[in-house]
Amino acid sequence: MSGILFRGGPVKSLGVSGDADWVLVVDGLVEATGLRQDEPGCDRTVELDGATLLPAFCDAHVHLPATGLYQKGMDFRGQHRSARILEAFRERASSGDGLLFGGNFEDPLDEPLTRHDLDAAVGERPAVLARADMHSCIVSSALLDHLTIAELEGVDCDDGGRPTGYLREQAAAEAWRWFDTNLPESQQRDAITAAVQLAYSKGVTSVHEMYVAEWRGWSSLSLLREVIAEVALDVLIYVASDDVERVRALNLGRIGGDLFLDGSFGSHTAWMADGYISAPPAGIPPNGVAYRTDEDLADFFREAQRAGLQAGVHAIGDAAIEQAVTAWEKVAAEVGAAAVASLGHRIEHFECAGDDLIARARHLGLRISVQPAFDAFWGGAGGLYSSRIGEQRALNMNRFGTMLRAGLSLGAGSDSTVTPLHPFLQMQALCMHHVEAERITAGQALRMHTVGSRALGGQGDVAGTIEPGRYADLIAVDHDPEACEGEAIGSIQVLGTWIKGKRVWPEEEAETK
Question: Can you tell me the distance from the alpha carbon of 473 to that of 481, in angstroms, rounded to the nearest whole number?
Answer without folding.
Answer: 18
